[in-house]
Design a protein that fits this description.
Layout lengths: L3 E5 L4 H17 L2 E8 L1 H5 L9 H18 L8 E7 L2 H11 L4 E5 L12 H10 L4 E4 L13 E5 L4 H17 L2 E9 H4 L9 H24 L4 E8 L1 H11 L4 E5 L12 H10 L4 E4 L6
Parallel strand pairs: 1-2, 1-4, 2-3, 4-5, 6-7, 6-9, 7-8, 9-10
Antiparallel strand pairs: 5-10
Length: about 300
């Protein structure tokens, strides 16, 4: 599933943590690694410098980028590695590089900096997650996001839609390589089923969408069993992002795999904003699969 994994880095702890997860996945899937540093000339020049920066300064930034990549390379012992330093806007340069090199997976830290400016910042990651045509694994350098010996518990939120199903395939593939238990969770979004903020959803409608959630999660459990994996299913009534994050914490999950578009009730559930909230706040890595992967 993954032959080429791209790791953009600015030398931050968050980028290094993403690199550690990329290294584990590269070994699990026998993939190669591409390490990328982007020299953001606009950020280097600053908003008051319309004339830009001179070539000598740019070359110094590129040398610093090469050193940043070099510091990360020891993580990838026994993994084929290619490196590159490019110029441009970080999010656009990352997406362009991924397309040009047939990248199958991106692994990014959700915060970072370059010079006095953040480079792999939340907004950059969110732009990449929205527009990437391949899965994007995001992580922060926190105590609960270490990769250690791999993944034991993988959470796969689903609403039964095609975009969610695409994420299921990625979640199951990683679980199979890591021999992890799969947690299939569906959240019936009570907000979209209610006629107003102070109204409760009709009982019949809740029952209908609960049944749909049970079918969707059971399909994942069946697919997991066919791969020889343990699986558990959960259907909750609540608010998607909050309940997914609560479940992750309560079950000591190691990874979340979720789609960036879908539906639940009369509205979308696994939509971009929900995924972005999970990406921003998840204490463990999130593998976000864009709906365009299914096209």
């Amino acid at each position: 599933m993954y032959d080429t994994v791209l790791v953009p880095t600015d030398g931050s702890d968050h980028a290094e943590r993403a690199g550690a997860h990329a290294a584990f996945l590269a070994r699990a899937f026998d993939a190669s690694i591409h390490l990328l540093n982007v020299v953001d000339l606009q950020a280097a020049a600053g908003p008051m410098n319309a004339g830009g920066v001179d070539e000598a300064y740019v070359e110094r930034l590129e040398s610093e980028g090469e050193a940043t990549i070099g510091a990360l390379e020891p993580i990838f012992e026994d993994v084929p590695v290619e490196t590159a330093v490019v110029r441009g806007r970080p999010s656009e340069a990352i997406l362009d590089y991924a397309a040009e090199h047939d990248v199958d997976l991106l692994a990014m830290g959700t915060h970072g900096r370059t010079g006095l400016k953040r480079y792999i910042a939340g907004s950059v990651v969110e732009h990449v997650v929205r527009h990437a045509t391949v899965p994007v694994l995001t992580t922060r350098a926190v105590e609960t996001s270490t990769v250690d010996d791999g993944y034991d518990e993988i959470v796969i939120p689903t609403d039964g839609s095609e975009p969610a199903t695409a994420a299921v395939e990625h979640g199951l593939a990683i679980a199979e390589r890591a021999d992890a238990r799969v947690h299939a969770i569906n959240v019936v979004n009570v907000a979209t089923l209610s006629s107003g903020p102070d109204q409760t959803a009709p009982t019949e409608l809740l029952a209908e969408f609960t049944a749909r959630g049970e079918r969707a999660t059971e399909e994942i459990a069946t697919a997991a069993a066919e791969r020889g994996l343990d699986a558990t299913t959960t259907v909750r009534k609540g608010f998607p992002a909050r309940d997914i994050l609560d479940y992750v914490e309560a079950n000591d999950a190691d990874l979340v795999a979720m789609g960036t578009a879908g539906r639940s009730g009369l509205n979308r559930f696994l939509l971009g904003s929900t995924t972005e909230r999970v990406v921003r706040h998840s204490p463990v890595p999130v593998c976000a699969v864009n709906a365009r992967d299914t096209e």
